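Pipeline run #58 for the internal structure catalog. This entry was flagged by the ingest filter as a single-chain record with no existing model, so it goes straight to prediction. Upstream metadata was stripped on purpose; only the residue string is passed forward. Reviewer on rotation: M.T. Logging verbosity set to normal.
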Amino acid sequence: RFEEGEIDGLPYRYNHEGLVIFDNVFVPWERVFMYKDWQMSGILVEIFSAYHRQGYGGCKSGLADVIIGASYNLAKQVGVDKAPHIQNKLTEMVLLTENMYSTGIAASLDAIKLCENDCWWVNPMFANVTKQLVTRFPYEITKFSTDIAGGILGTGPSEWDLKNPKLKPYIEKYLQGISDYKVEDRLRMIRLLENVSLGVAFLIESVHGAGSPEAQRIVINRVYDYDYASKIAMYLANIKKDVEFKEKVEPWRETDTERTAKSVTSNDKK
């Protein structure tokens, strides 16, 4: 159940989750894109999941920017924003955020061309690495934001306490930070940080959205060619000399999607 009120209920405006039940839904034939093509189902999942996982690099880093901004503002409100340990935590939060964002960008910039008419697919390795980072870094970012905000993030008074004429003077007296901000400003920022950093979209979704952590690790292990990497190491150690080097520098295997695309393109040319 969501909190009510104009302060405590603030996050309700940003909620985007819902339960959808398809109960005997009619799908018109023109909206059917696969029919008895079970051989392509694995490739469809491979293509879709890579796009979805790449997108998380921008999605969660965007939320992280909100959390960084809220954490910094709360530090300013109590006059500790210049403290070295606060600055260090904020820097760590930025590093983690930009790591997620940059891998998502890399997945797009190093995209793979699947067909002649400019049909591109995000780099599957970078896309899955992006999502794997997203399963971890939001929890670190949340830890730092909780540290900066203080225990009031979990123990702060409610909106109704603040609006209670008997309690309001006490709350304004004991929770006041620097004079540039009102106590209400602090409580508003606390509610925003509490619900964004500890909510579904930033934590639970970061782990299970677009596939749980093991799903990315499976793809990463499929793509990474350990045998080829081992041969390179053996060559450099003067153990093995007859190594056939690939054109690409990365020790990666082709995905099923790439192999199928090449096969289709080759048949079309014939």
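catalog note: The beta strands are 112-115, 119-121.
catalog note: The mean pLDDT is 93.
status: ready for reviewer M.T.
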